[in-house]
Design brief:
The protein is mostly helical. Helices cover 71% and strands 4% of the residues. Strands 1-2 form a two-stranded antiparallel sheet. Strand 1 and strand 2 form a beta hairpin. Belongs to the sigma-70 factor family.
Length: 237
């Protein structure tokens, strides 16, 4: 552990050799996490490359004052990088020509709707753009399939909620372990009183007034500290 911290400190000071040594020593973490995402439409080699980016980010962002092991901090970072890649790259693969066709269909439908004052038929769209009905249907389905998951269904308080947010995600044991490690790594960066406040508010479901009594604080102090803690955790996430 001390050797790892020493290498991280040197890396933060610009020592590229120390950074490379750290990355090599912890590649086992990348392989372990990448195997969990194997078989999701992406080659294992690509997953390892993306996971390595997460490892390097963990090295660069690790705070030496954190009361957690580097591996505990790095694993959620690696998993998060791979998850972002799979999400942004899209699990539904649509060809470029099909995407272009979908855009053309959409624009043509809007044009014809203005011209006719009604929703155009499939035959009318087909004749306008010179494509078969089957090609148009495939293009429309490919576009709606992708949009259906990411389309905003509610906007409020500055937070957008997409249809994907309402899909129940089946978690396996390794998924829960990663989440648990992420939570532990975040809580480990807090002071003892801050951890106590979160425990009382979010795990024991006490009100701010009740928490204030237990921590010998005022309700205003609890409110301010809670906002500060949540802001700190949000930034570190």
């Amino acid at each position: 552990m001390e050797q790892t911290l020493a290498l991280i400190e040197r890396s933060h000071k610009g020592d590229k050799d120390a950074r490379n040594v750290l990355a090599q020593q912890n590649m086992g973490l990348v392989y372990t996490v990448a195997r969990r995402f194997n078989g999701r439409g992406c080659e294992m080699e690509d997953l390892i490359q993306i996971g390595s980016i997460g490892l390097l980010k963990a090295i660069d962002k690790f705070d030496l004052s954190y009361d957690v092991r580097f591996s505990t901090y790095a694993v959620p970072m690696i998993a998060g990088e791979i998850k972002r890649f799979l999400r942004d790259d899209g699990m539904i693969k649509v060809s470029r020509s099909l995407k272009e066709m979908a855009v053309k269909v959409c624009m043509t439908r809007e044009k014809l709707e203005k011209d006719y004052g009604r929703e155009p038929t499939l035959e009318e769209v087909s004749e306008e753009i010179g494509a078969t009905r089957e090609e148009i249907v495939m293009a429309m389905e490919s576009a709606s399939e992708v949009e259906s998951l990411h389309k905003t269904i509610y906007q409020g308080d500055g937070n957008a909620i997409s249809l994907m947010d309402g899909i129940k995600e089946e978690k396996d044991a390794s998924e829960e372990l990663l989440d648990h490690m992420l939570l532990n790594s975040l809580l480990g960066t807090l002071e003892e009183k801050e951890r106590d406040l979160l425990r009382l508010r979010y795990f024991e479901d006490l009100t701010q007034v009740q928490v204030a009594k237990q921590l010998d604080m005022t309700q205003v102090q609890v409110s301010r500290m809670e906002k500060k803690i949540l802001g700190k955790l949000r930034e570190r996430l």
